[in-house]
Amino acid sequence: MGESGFDVFCPECNMLVEAKVIAEGDGESKITDINPFDISDSPYNIDHFLVCVCRRCGQPFFIRQSWYVVPAEIESPTGEIVLYPTESKLTQEALPKSVKSAYDDASKCFKASMFEPCVLMCRKCLEAICKNLGAEGRDLNKRLVRLSEAGQIDSRLLNWAHEIRLIGNEAAHEVDGKVTKRDARDVLDFTEAIIIYVFSLTKRFESFKVRRAKYSK
Ligand SMILES: [Zn+2]
Q: 180 C-alpha to center of ligand 1: Å?
């Protein structure tokens, strides 16, 4: 525990960078097995927190490392998570498999700076959404309109979806078409917003209503 540099994926630089550790400290330790002969020798789990900044662009990070420690013997890392910036706002509880897998692929393409494949996967994500919600029609355009007519997306989301569909079409058919990093980032964010609206928030709102109904009884 305790280091001055930290390798992390920087979403601003869109690459793995070495971040500089500017502050760090331990959380509370939790004893795992009490040593009956000497309690201060008991093995424990502890979280170590790091605040870092990207050396290239200054993006800040907040990281939690988990450790298993046997005093004077072992210090072994058991896990590590970037708490900030969070990778995706998607709560993945209620996502259909095909939607999640298309979205994950789109994110992976973006991280690898493959912007055309990224928007293609976003378009595929829309296809998966339509299929999951039972929207029928001869092409994606028609199926999206069906979704809107059935009240599953509103007119603003329908506009976003059409733009994603169009940029996906261009990426698929135009040899000279160029999808910039900025466009791909926007398309990925719009896709994420549609997924959150259609799946996560819709499900949360249903359970919110059920909970409210219980209180009022
Ligand atoms: Zn950076």
A: 18
Report CA(55)–ligand 1 centroid distance (Å). Answer: 7
Measured in degrees and rounded to the nearest 5, phi and psi for residue 45 equal -100, 145
- 201: its two tokens: 């928030």
Q: Which CATH class is domain 97-215?
A: mainly alpha
- What separation in Å is there between the alpha carbon of 12 and the centre of ligand 1? 5
Name the amino acid, one letter, at 215.
Answer: Y
Sequence spans of domains, the chain: 5-84, 97-215
How many A from CA of 187 to the centre of ligand 1?
A: 21
**Bond from prior residue into 85 cis (ω within 30 degrees of 0):** yes
At position 122, the amino acid (one-letter code) is C
pLDDT digits (tens, 9 = 90+) for 92-116: 566 899 999 999 999 989 988 899 9
